[in-house]
Target: Dihydroxyacetone kinase subunit DhaL
Amino acid sequence: MTCKSEGVAAAVRAAAAVVAEHRAELVELDRAIGDGDHGENLNRGFTAVVAALDAAEPDTPGGVLKLVATTLISKVGGAAGPLYGTAFLRASAKLGTTAELDVPALLDALRAGLEGVQARGKAVEGDATMVDALIPALSAAEKAAEDGGDVAAVLTAAADAADRGAESTVELVPRKGRASYLGERAVGHMDPGARSSALLLRAFAGAAR
Ligand code: ADP
Ligand code: MG
Ligand code: MG
Model:
């Protein structure tokens, strides 16, 4: 991809396709420890994002991410809509009017996104939420950048770490969101939001190649 606005929009479209493909899986994960709507929520949101991009594609990476944010906030209820919405909004604000998403800008956007999720949801590592995918993803992205990785390599490292982070939630007792109502009974189940975060990062990494 080019890391200009068209490339970022293509990555968002790829993410929407991955969400649609994994809708049932995310519903199943959320059915086990929540209310079973996570896949539906995200699919509705990303379908609306694609429609918004089709109607008018913004001409900066930050503009694309802002459109994602405002669409997710308005179309996705529950916990995940505002959390992902805030992540994309903070990332877009960080990018400002930058025309091209290079590695330093990508790291800034990832950091801002994670900060947004934590500011909004107050979850820390180990609470069995999407934060358990996103924190290791950011660390791995930073390390890949230090090692000289390009945008695709940085996103691939982030996605690999997010997969492991999502896997780690299986053993955790949830302390935030609906799953926390189950306490110990939620152990043995992967957090749906951690899984969706890993899927989004994998889609972005694939689009960047
Ligand atoms: P709801 O739980 O309102 O139905 P979703 O099912 O769409 O919303 O999203 C659930 C996901 O949201 C969880 O799997 C978890 O990853 C994430 N989540 C919930 N609360 C928080 C929080 N306070 N901080 C971070 N992530 C959270
Ligand atoms: Mg739910
Ligand atoms: Mg719900």
User: Anything to note?
Assistant: The domain at 5-208 is CATH 1.25.40.340 (Serine Threonine Protein Phosphatase 5, Tetratricopeptide repeat). Residues 136 and 146 are 15 Å apart (CA to CA). The mean pLDDT is 97. The pocket of magnesium ion (ligand 3) is lined by residues 35, 37, 78 (CB under 6 Å).
